[in-house]
Amino acid sequence: MIHDIWNVFLYKPLINALAFLVSVIPGGDIGLSVIILTILVKLLLFPFSQKSIKNQAAMTMLAPEIDKIKKSGASKEEQARLTFELYKKHKTNPFSGCLLVLIQIPIIFALYYVFFKGIAFDGSLLYSFIHIPTETNMIFLGFIDLGAKSLLLALLAGVSQYLQAHFMPKPTVSATPGGSFQESFTKSMQMQMKYVFPILITWIAYSISGAVALYWITSNIFSVGQQIYVNRTEKKVLDKEVEVLISKK
Fold first, then answer.
1. CA distance 140 to 249
2. What whole-number distance in Å separates Cα of residue 242 and Cα of residue 240?
3. Minimal CA–CA distance to 32: which of 125, 139, 118, 117?
4. For residues 206 and 210, what is the distance between their CA atoms, to the nearest angstrom?
5. Can you give the pTM of this predicted structure?
6. What rounded mean pLDDT belongs to the chain?
7. What residues pair up with 29 in beta bridges, in sequence order?
8. Which of 42-51, 101-110, 156-165, 230-239 has the highest mean pLDDT?
9. How many angstroms separate the Cα of 132 from the Cα of each of 147, 194, 210?
10. What value, to the nearest 5°, has the Cα angle with vertex 196 and ends 149 and 45?
11. 105 partner at 20 to 30 Å CA-CA among 29, 39, 164, 215?
């Protein structure tokens, strides 16, 4: 049942989209097809990821205010009420980001699986109106074989993963000595995402194929651009709110 759902709604549409792109791109360039398909999927998920990034950025910017509520001396019930009102005012939900990420994971994993299995088009998986490409070119940029391991692309995948983690909103550390377990855990996860995960991605990309590495590079560069855009727009919103607060004093 799960396998059928996976094939019908995730894997088959993506492998057919890739076959179509290879058929229409001059020379059957697999590299360009991988890049275009990855960008198309990221654009499809854009509304979900955009809202998730905005929510994450908003949570980071609201952290100092939440810290003030915690140190106000109010009861736990009053702290919860004030925190809820703060979230409501800024239209932020600390749990919505998790749901949005969960929606994206199966699609992103299916796209990864398309490249993980290798670029080989099985006629039984293609729709009747999609034909097996008559020409495929696995050599990207004239010298990188996407069907084989590529150290260059694997390293670039790791670097792009580091940049994505670098531009993510940083968790605000509480001024309270020692901090809470949640803050320590968040900081630890942030460090692992920034330094450990890029190494893991480099190893995975090199272990499988250049196509997987190219997928990671394209996906990460798109995410970095999206993150920079959200960071700048959210900062403008915050600056306006600060100006309003100052004017009222």
1. 60
2. 5
3. 139
4. 7
5. 0.74
6. 77
7. 137
8. 156-165
9. 18, 40, 22
10. 75
11. 29
* 91 token code pair: 């239209």
Exposed / middle / buried, residue 135 (Cβ in 10 Å: 0-12, 13-18, 19+): exposed
The amino acid at 218: T
Contacts of 154 (CB under 8 A, 6+ apart): 202, 203, 205, 206, 213
Residues composing the chain: 249
* CA separation for the pair 110, 126 (Å, rounded): 16
Measured between alpha carbons, how far is 17 from 3 in angstroms, rounded to an integer? Answer: 20
For residue 145, what is the enclosing H or E element?
strand 144-145
Domain boundaries, the chain: 2-248
**Amino acid symbol at 62:** L
Dihedral of CA 17/20/24/25: which sign?
Answer: positive
